[in-house]
UniProtKB/TrEMBL annotation:
Belongs to the small GTPase superfamily. Rab family. It comes from Poecilia formosa. It is found in: Cell membrane; Cytoplasmic vesicle, Phagosome membrane. It is a lipid-anchor. This is small monomeric GTPase.
Length: 219
């Protein structure tokens, strides 16, 4: 009798017998003013942790998370950028190749909301996006848990409507409100846009249930 370990070893060493599955690698980038909570949103989504004394980001960082949306398994590569103006030249080279841009502001900071248009322009310029209004942007109003609100939901939705019909989420990285929904919507937006095949990569997943086709026996 063949042990399952041996069978697994045989299948792995014989990739033609194993069925390789495909997973989409999607690059999502978080942009917005310094302090609005971009790093906190990424950390909440990927590690389910929140730090109330997080340092400003310098340059860019990224984390991956696998998820399934509407039956499609994808690997989300989340790029977190430094929002402070002095780090502009460190972040902009990383915009190219993004599949979705999460424009983030803080609900308790009206200026960060006013700056959304600048972030959108900066992204479109450095990512070389020809038609920004048809690119998948998602807008996040973060720090929903803070009572001193400076931006109303109505105002934010109006901006989204008038600037390309972007989806809008009010989130709290602190108490995890709507964070997963926002990232899932980003994936939906990307998958519904056309021409996704260029983002398919081979993963190492091997389906051990599928039996290898028997070699034709020689007489
Ligand atoms: N109350 C509350 N505080 C938050 C929330 N998200 C982030 N913060 C806090 O706001 C501060 C700034 O958060 P960061 O995640 O570092 O902000 P950032 O957008 O990454 O800032 P830069 O890296 O400078 O661009 C930190 O002290 C966080 O703990 C939230 O949803 N609610
Ligand atoms: Mg940060």
């Amino acid at each position: 009798m063949v042990s399952s370990e041996l069978l697994s070893g045989l299948l792995v060493s014989n990739p033609t017998a194993a069925m390789m599955s495909k997973s989409a690698l999607l690059k999502v980038i978080l942009l917005g003013d310094g302090g609005v909570g971009k790093s906190s949103l990424m950390n909440r989504y990927v590690t389910n942790k929140f730090d109330s004394h997080l340092f400003h980001t310098i340059g860019v960082e990224f984390l991956n998370r696998e998820l399934e949306v509407d039956g499609r398994r994808v690997t989300l590569q989340i790029w977190d950028t430094a929002g402070q103006e002095r780090f502009r030249s460190l972040r902009t080279p990383f915009y190219r190749g993004s599949d979705c841009c999460l424009l983030t502001f803080s609900l308790d900071d009206g200026q960060s909301f006013q700056n959304l248009s600048n972030w959108k322009k900066e992204f479109a310029y450095y990512a070389d996006v020809k038609d920004p209004d048809s690119f998948p942007f998602v807008v996040l109003g973060n720090k929903l848990d803070v009572p001193e609100r400076q931006v109303s939901g109505e105002e934010a939705r109006k901006w989204c409507r008038e600037n390309g019909g972007h989806p809008y989420f009010e989130t709290s990285a602190k108490d995890a409100t709507n964070v997963a929904s926002a990232f899932e919507e980003a994936v939906r937006r990307i998958l519904s846009s056309e021409d996704r095949d260029d983002h398919l990569i081979q993963t190492d997943t091997v389906n051990l249930q599928k039996k290898p086709r028997p070699e034709p026996s020689c007489c």
